[in-house]
Amino acid sequence: MKKLLAAACTLGLLLSACSAPAASQRSDDGKLHVLATTYPVYLFTTAVTEGVDNVEVSLLVNQQTSCLHDYTLTVNDMKAIEGADVIIMNGAGLEDFMDDALAASDAPVIDCSEGIDLLPALGHEGHDHDTEYDPHIWMAEGNASIMLETISSGLSGLDEANQETYASNAAQAQDALGYDPAVLEQLAGKPLITFHNGFQYFAQATGLDLLKSIEEEEGSEASAAEIQEIVSLIEEYDIPAIFTEVNGSDATAQAISRETGCAVYQLNMIMSGDGTGIQPYLDAMNANLKTIAEAFG
After folding, report:
1. CA–CA dist 231, 234 (Å, integer)
2. Is the distance from CB of 154 to CB of 55 less than 8 angstroms?
3. Measured between alpha carbons, how far is 39 from 59 in angstroms, rounded to an integer?
């Protein structure tokens, strides 16, 4: 296994993944220990590795959180990184919190943002942290398809014996992706206001018109000017509902609801869960579409 990893590093393969805490030291049990950094990446990785006995996938960050900008690695996180044979990450700046840990690790890294047309970051009002690109790439199913392919290709370079299984699993998961065209037709051009900046890719992929997106967390509520702007947009476009993120703050949204009479609904960024494989991702994305369709009647 050590020779395998050394060869992978020589090739400069970039890999990343989501997983549960792994052992603090690399094991010689003959398995490829894969660490996925976030839940969406973990779902894609477990979909690609399904049925491969010599691969163990773990998830690093599995918390009910709407944002990883202020995440701090725990002792168990550090042990998981140290014990990983390969790390699969979302990329695009989402895992900035683990830059130092990655620099200290000799495990190859798979970056799932490779090959994706990244959108500029919408900005993080109230944060002292800036990213050039929007890292919420998994929120568009077209991007999810690219991420599955990147994971399959990266793991195949490390584990050639199972490359056919990886490719077949990735293709099967990709075939399962796809929005309901009837729902997309209903939502085309509908104005969207969110209280989390993670829905830019989702709006672009589904034809929604993202009018305003505010990154609101505890201690960084929307400003008076932003609130007035949202109120004006609601009145101008006769918007029936605004949207918060499941694990985010809804204080300002509820205040605006009381002032304008619009409803408040929650959307899911899929940042935590208990499932594996592609189905939990599909369920969450379809639920988001149904929520928006319901909100707009």
Report:
1. 5
2. no
3. 7
Please classify residue 284 by burial: count the beta carbons closer than 10 Å to its beta carbon, then call 0-12 exposed, 13-18 middle and 19+ buried.
buried
- Residues 6 or more apart whose Cβ sits within 8 Å of residue 282: 176, 177
What number of H helices and E strands is found in the chain? 11, 8
Residue 46 DSSP SS3: helix
The region of weakest confidence among 99-103, 165-169, 223-227, 233-237 is 223-227
* pLDDT surpasses 50 at 1: no
Read out DSSP for 171-207? Answer: HHHHHH----HHHHHHHTT-EEEESSTT-HHHHHHHT
DSSP string, 230-253: HHHHHHHHT--EEEEETTS--HHH
What whole-number distance in Å separates Cα of residue 191 and Cα of residue 200?
13
Rounded (5°) CA angle 105-59-100: 30
Residue 49, helix vs strand vs coil: coil
Helix, strand or coil for residue 217? Answer: strand
Please tell me the number of Cα atoms within 13 Å of 158 on its side-chain side.
Answer: 33
SS3 268: coil
CA angle 157, 34, 83 (to 5 degrees): 120
CA dihedral 141, 145, 147, 150 (to 10 degrees): -170
User: Residue 38 carries which DSSP code?
Assistant: S
What is the length of the chain? 297
3-state class of 100 per DSSP?
helix
- Stretch 202-227: mean pLDDT: 85
Quote the pLDDT of residue 72. Answer: 92
Q: What pLDDT is stored for residue 130 in this prediction?
A: 56
